[in-house]
Amino acid sequence: MSAESSGTKLPLIKIALYGPARSGKTAFKNTFLGKRSLGDYIPTEKVEVVEVVRTFFRIRSGRKIPVETYRLAIADLPSKEELLSERLANLSRCVGLLLFYDVTDPVSPQILMKMVEDEIISGGYLQNMIALSIIGTKKDLGINKDAIMIGQELADKLSKEIKSIWNYDVPHLIVSALNVEEVKIVIEVMEHILMTLSIPKDLVNKLSATAVLEGAVFPSVEPVKEEEILIKPELKRPEALAEEAMEIAKREKVIEEKYKLIPATKPWDLLKNLASKYPEIEKILLLVTTSRGEIYTAFYPGEPTLENIPIDLVDMIIAFGKSLKDVLIKEEMGDLSYAILHGTKKSVLYTRLKGGKGIIVIKTKGKPSEELIRFFTE
Ligand SMILES: Nc1nc2c(ncn2[C@@H]2O[C@H](COP(=O)(O)OP(=O)(O)O)[C@@H](O)[C@H]2O)c(=O)[nH]1
Ligand SMILES: [Mg+2]
After folding, report:
1. Which of 169, 207, 261, 337 could form a disulfide with 159 if both were Cys (CB 3.0 to 4.6 A apart)?
2. Atom 4 (ligand 1) nearest CA
């Protein structure tokens, strides 16, 4: 974390602190900002958003490599009943959610459970969320096992939903919202999920509710070390790739350009992997259209920069896709699945991913191999 941002063009990621009154949301936010929040309880009367600039690092061969510098906005949502519409308006702009309850009081997680059901699940906000964690606070005041068990019930319930979308279990962490180290770990867990779509097990284990329920003693919090994130080469189904790219694209990246960059290196790495598997590949273009109509792009070869996106080519491919669609409609052919253009020197494989999630266009030297065609079309 560094200084507060000054409206730069860094990507903005917004998360919300959500939960019943007195569950420690405001204390958590204040602790994160380095402010002390002891004393009388003051209910939060409106949504308060703070913004910090952070850099997410990964460590490779002992070197710290910055992966993404971004603005993290944290919205402290008021829990008052009458502020429902304000709460919901903010939720729709968030991709991460920290769900708070008080571990000293079993009523607190019950209220949280009900709020989550009535507002988040029924409101359809869960689908927007990439990262979720459940946070039990006030562990320094002594814990109530029943409270934690109810918190865990909620974690299990949400994990079922999240597993089917993102394939991770929702972390359930027990903290003191007044402890700086613990608050930082919670934010790092969140950040790790947002950036890698996976759980940082070492960090989670430091505050895990399971350990508490099993009667383990709280380990004293050690200084946080960046742990190693190995990005394994993997060959994903094209749909999975587009889905991933689309979800990453949801994290609003403000670039005033015609087509936006997919704001994470992972889809770019995936394209690279694909190209290394099929040597006939010369170029790959991935286009993902979000529900807001924006078109995000990733391209192989080259680095993930806007300059590397061949804008002319993207224009042509979009126009080509529209013409193809017109033909399909006119001739009542159903949806397009793929098209192969064989040139005398090179070929292009145009694949529309299932569910209209995006398109992948691959240019090959000579004709594409049967294997490549099969990978994309079956
Ligand atoms: N000892 C202790 N007090 C806490 C903790 N979290 C919150 N509090 C206190 O509990 C009260 C309610 O917390 P607050 O953050 O305002 O709750 P909010 O309504 O969720 O924003 C305040 O007096 C906080 O100082 C915690 O983890 N430990
Ligand atoms: Mg508050």
Report:
1. 169
2. 138
Say yes or no: CB of residue 177 within 6 Å of ligand 1. Answer: yes
pTM of the model: 0.60
Site to substitute for ligand 1 among 28, 30, 37, most atoms within 8 A of C-beta? 37
State in words which class domain 256-377 has: alpha beta
Rounded to the nearest whole angstrom, what is the distance from the C-alpha of residue 204 to the centroid of ligand 1? 22
- Please give the chain's pLDDT, 378 residues, in tens: 444 444 457 889 999 999 999 999 999 999 999 887 666 677 777 888 999 999 998 877 778 888 889 999 999 998 877 678 888 888 888 999 999 999 999 999 999 999 999 999 998 889 889 999 999 999 999 889 999 999 999 999 999 989 888 889 999 999 999 999 999 999 999 999 999 889 999 999 999 998 887 764 443 333 333 333 333 334 566 666 667 666 655 543 433 356 777 767 777 888 888 888 888 999 999 888 766 666 778 889 888 877 788 888 888 888 888 888 888 888 888 877 888 898 888 999 998 877 667 889 999 998 888 888 888 877
Q: Is the CB of 176 under 6 A from ligand 1?
A: yes
Span from the CA of 237 to the centroid of ligand 1 (angstroms): 46
The residue count of the chain comes to 378
Ligand 1 neighbourhood includes 316 CB (under 6 angstroms): no
Report the interhelical angle of 145-166 vs 107-115 (nearest 10°). Answer: 30
The CATH homologous superfamily to which domain 12-213 belongs is P-loop containing nucleotide triphosphate hydrolases (3.40.50.300)
Same fold, 12-213 and 256-377: no
For residue 133, the CA-to-ligand 1 centroid distance in Å is 18
Instruction: Indicate whether residue 17 lines ligand 1 (CB < 6 A).
Output: no
Burial class (CB in 10 A: 0-12, 13-18, 19+), 85: exposed
